Amino acid sequence: MSFHAMAEIFQLFLAFIKMHGFLQTRIFSTCCIRSATSTLFSLKLKPSIIRDHKSKFGELFRGYCLLLPLKRYLPPKTHLLNSHQKSTIHTYSRKGRLLPPLPTVTPVFKQGFTIFFRGLKHVLIGSIAFLTLLFIVSRGVHLYIEHFYYSTPSSIPSKARDFLRAAYIFEEWYPNLENAQKILYDAFIIIQKEKELPPTDPIVLDILLRIANNAMRLGNLREANLDYKRIFDVLIYQDDEVNRKKAIDVAKKAAKISVKVKDFRLAEDYLIWTIETLNKELHTNKNLSYSGNNIESQVFKRTTSQDSFINLQSKMSMDLIQCTVMLAGVYATQKQFDKALPLYLGSLKMLVERKATEKDPEKKDLSKELTDSDSFHHCGDAIIMGHLGEIFYAMGKVEEAMGWFQKGFLIAKRGSGIRNCDECAGVILNNLGLINEKKGLLEDAKAFYSQALSFAEIADDVEGREEFSTNLHRIQIHDEENKSSE
Description:
Blueprint: H1 3-19, H2 27-43, H3 47-50, H4 56-67, E1 78-83, E2 86-92, E3 98-99, H5 108-148, H6 158-173, H7 177-194, H8 202-218, H9 221-235, H10 241-260, H11 264-283, H12 294-298, H13 306-312, H14 318-333, H15 337-357, H16 372-394, H17 398-414, H18 419-439, H19 442-459, H20 462-485
Antiparallel strand pairs: 1-2, 2-3
Helix pairs in contact: 1-4, 2-4, 6-7, 7-8, 8-9, 9-10, 10-11, 11-14, 13-15, 14-15, 14-16, 15-16, 16-17, 16-18, 17-18, 18-19, 18-20, 19-20
């Protein structure tokens, strides 16, 4: 074969390689050279095939013949084997070692789309799993609250029931009263739209009562006062015992708020109605009727005589004593000492007698949270003595006031650990500090203020802590001025 023919065949071979894009890949050796080699050896290098210039395979074979001297520069031997029911190319080195699988030629954009869709699939699966888990946990919490803490009525829509339970979480578990208020309003709107319940319905009253309680806890006193008044106006016309107890509770809360907003007349009306109702229940006399200030001449006609008062109320309940003390406080705030003093003295005697006949309060489990009635049972006499000391001091009877303060402090100190007792002890000590400061006994006043601040810290009394620290700071500044002047 001439040199020109060989050069022509070699150019055709290179053009064939370039046309099929195998110039930079090892797949060429796998798909072409090994196939050509097998074909050549199977044909045993027949000259007739080599001379076939019109056949492309002939050109390929002639090119391979030209490259036979370059065998040492060709890629390692490769074998197409069937592995795990998939066609996989296994490459071996000349020493028989297994090389990594041959790379496949995949466009970049195809690889990008593959990675993107694979990641998207994982994100979707993770999101669905997370949302499913969140739904299961949420329903589990709702069922737990429903069965163990706050049972919602089954007659209202399920969405409203979910809102009521969610509001309970923000009220009791994770306090956020603003969110609780919004959720309660939403539940109320849903119930009114779908059920159109009357204002006297227990479900509606329960929601409104929760809204009023949250408003009071948030410090929105006027809003809470209006809410309590609306509820009270509905409850007083109900004859059943459950609503009557609710009305008494609402009246007591409304009276406290009315005192804070300086609406003493409204507070007096609430307390008079409460005392009247409790007195009716106590004496089972349904024909008694009181209105306005007439209660003074009816229930407390004989309060000027302590013995008559105690004999009349020999079976006073703790709620009745507590409301009587609150009414006396309303009169004392208005400086109507002639009305407040007999109520305080009569309530104190009745409370002392009750504590003497009932179980010793010191033997109760004080580690548990006490109700208002239990707390008043422990510290009511100390609180009343503190009020009596304030009244006698306002009347100019300083020595009597000091005696009542000291007695009250000793009782409150014995009940230390109960919030009301610690608050009472702090208030009494602060009053003793004020009396000694006016007398010019600054060291004694400073000691009383320091002790009062300690009790306020124990009771977590924010208002008391601010007031007592202000008084103590005033004494300290006075001491510094005296030292600097000397």
